[in-house]
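Honest question from a wet-lab person: if I give you the sequences of every part of a complex, can you actually get the arrangement of the whole thing, not just the pieces? Trying it with mine:
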Amino acid sequence: QAHLDRISAVDADIHAFLHVSDHALDVAADIDRRRAAGEELGPVAGVPLAIKDVLVTTDMPSTSGSKILEGYLSPYDATVVARARAAGLVPLGKTNMDEFAMGSSTEHSAYGPTRNPWDLERIPGGSGGGSAAAVAAFEAPLALGSDTGGSIRQPAHVTGTVGLKPTYGAVSRYGAIALASSLDQVGPVTRTVLDSGLLHDVIGGHDPHDSTSLAHEWPSFAAAAREGATGEVLKGLKVGVIRELPDSGFQQGVSQSFRAALAAMEAQGAEIVEISAPHFEYGVAAYYLILPAEASSNLAKFDSVRFGLRVDVPGGTVEDVMARTRDAGFGDEVKRRIILGTYALSAGYYDAYYGSAQKVRTLIQRDFAEAFAQVDVIATPSAPTTAFKLGEKIDDPLQMYLNDVTTIPANLAGVPGISIPSGLAAEDGLPVGIQFLAPAYEDARLYRVGAALE
Ligand code: GLN
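Yes, you can. This is the full assembly:
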């Protein structure tokens, strides 16, 4: 009830939610009854959960921020949602996002932007700005996001929250409306590292419905966060800093906060090691070929027949109906990426664009492999700037894309990454995050390090 009250009080301004559940209190009451009847319930039972609208749910519409899916009700729950319900989490509602998770500001939502609770004139990051804003504004204690190129970590950075992208394959993608299938991962957005671990423990683990789901025994991430909180992990921890990451393009307060966080780690016994990751900076270029290519294929299913919107064209052909529906249902950014993707995949261009991008992806994976032979984690600023103003980058897609420079390489390489708050930028008083990356399967290491710094 407290969270529903908070949503009523602030969400008209923030617009974190696209849909608020009308039966959250019934679900909560049921959990109370089960607890009163002596049932053993897990640590998160009864805790409200905000769900990014990219995840399908049977009891609330799932739009992925697009008009083409307005009002769409899924016949099944995403695996992460089903697991959340089974653990007694109480779905509060569906959160706003850039259309089909394409964006860094939530301004590409077909339902209007979300605003940053720290400053309503500024963006909450994206694509999962709704989940991050809901958590930052105390509308929800826990939220689910998805991260294809930074959509969990960059919103966490600009809202002062914790966001973690798991190892690729660690959390099921079943029921996560696909953006780029080789990059997408679902993960938690929370206020603390321990909260993130508690939620990750619920949603993670092998799922036979997802062919890329890893069959791996994961440790408890909540336990890792508790272990990390002692700070012991920092003693002798080797933290890699990327030599090639250009200082230019990073806002002063972001760089300052990053250096201060490194100094604090050093003071507690960590060793800062300069590493070379020469291909890291080509991540954005490779990503904006690979992602549109995969997205153009994934979005082909919105054809006016199988899902969502259909615009009737009296006397028109099937193709007319499809074309008019896709024209009316997709926003500009989605159309831009479909065109980019189909172009990059077309005969004659495939090797030059998609093929080259895949090679760069392999080089980035090798950079990571070499780096992790020398260090335990890599640290970067989570994003180049603090929250920018609404409207500031909306007409300049390239500027928007460059916001992902530090987050994208982890998706290309499949490694886990966390963004945790590292203070406020001196010049604007807005939140800044620090990102840690670990080798694949070492998500628990990120919980230890993150909790140590909290
Ligand atoms: N900002 C990135 C993009 O626009 C990230 C998207 C994501 O992680 N879903 O593609």
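Two things worth pointing out. The pocket of glutamine is lined by residues 101-104, 127, 147-151, 179, 291, 404 (CB under 6 Å). The mean pLDDT is 96.
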